[in-house]
Amino acid sequence: MRIAAKIQYHGKSFSGSQYQAGVRTVQHELEKALSTYLRVPTKAGFSGRTDRGVHAAGQVVHFDVAEAELDLWRFCWALNGILPSDISITAVKVVDEKFHARFSARKREYVYRILNSPQRSALLKETHFFVYRPLDLELMKASATVLLGSHDFVGFRSTNADKTSSICDVSRAELLNLGEGRLEFWIAANHFVYNMVRIIVGTLVEIGLGKRAPESLAEALNAGDRSLAGPTAPSWGLTLNSVEYPEDYALFELDS
Q1: b/e burial code for range 69-102 (CB count within 10 A of at least 16 → b)
Q2: From 51, 86, 136, 152, active-site residue
Q3: Are residues 6 and 93 in the same domain?
Q4: Contact criterion met (CB below 8 Å) for 13 and 24
Q5: Residues 236 and 155 occupy one common structural domain
Q6: Of the residues 104, 138, 157, which one is the last residue of a structural domain?
Q7: Is the pLDDT of residue 131 over 80?
Q8: Residues 54 and 116 grouped into a single domain
């Protein structure tokens, strides 16, 4: 029986989501908890990779269990009792055997959080990128509109990334001002290249600070040249917010 689960994690103490030998990862902790509860070695597939320090509010994973029947509420509750405090499972659902957390996904949504304030925050330091100089939000918002639609984002991919397809169809690219210096940049697409969101944010911040021209984001996009984009923003401001699947799977209508 295949199970899909929605999980959250605070990325500070992890060297990323995917398993790496000798370091602490989300996958290692999750598989350890699953194997403890189910009493057999259990592997989990993730909807996508997040890097060291990146958080998740709606990461999706799948794994297989031998049991023909399972009390999902009790299963979820028990796993949260085994997992460390910086990971939690918020929903579980039995899915079709063909479901794959990564390959069945059709859209992912990220949010990048910025604190634009003269003074740093002790409470937000692990989830927000602190920028103390005032940002021109209108320039940043106007610049971000060029991201919408289908484009080649090779200019916003880290130079050491795998050379997979860099064509991404962006359906949302929106900068929100929540007040008191708290900003959120939301972006959703069918596909993301490595460090794409953080490089976009780094470019937008430099536009907002007046360090680069407003049209520089479009120039980097059109030229496909990483050197024309801004720096990579810190990992701790980024959160994988949600993963969208075809309606046939009807995932997570109710939290378990």
Answers
A1: eeebeebbeebeeebbebbebbbbbebeeebbbe
A2: 51
A3: yes
A4: yes
A5: yes
A6: 104
A7: yes
A8: no
| Same domain for 152 and 68 | no
64 is catalytic: no
The dihedral of CA 236, 85, 1, 45: what is its sign?
positive
Indicate the SS3 state at residue 90: strand
| pTM above threshold 0.90 | yes
Nearest residue to 152 (alpha-carbon basis) of 244, 215, 226: 226
Question: Two tokens at 137?
Answer: 């939000």
Beta bridge partners of 187: 110, 173
Residue-number span of the structural domain to which 204 is assigned? 107-241
Do 83 and 141 sit in the same domain of this protein? no
d(CA 209, CA 134): 7
Q: DSSP H helical segments within 174-249, as ranges?
A: 196-208, 216-223
pLDDT in tens, 85-129: 999 999 999 999 999 999 999 999 999 999 999 999 999 999 999
**CATH value at residue 215:** 3.30.70.660
Q: Return d(Cα 248, Cα 252) in angstroms, integer.
A: 12
- Token pair in block for residue 51: 């890097």
- SS3 for 12? helix
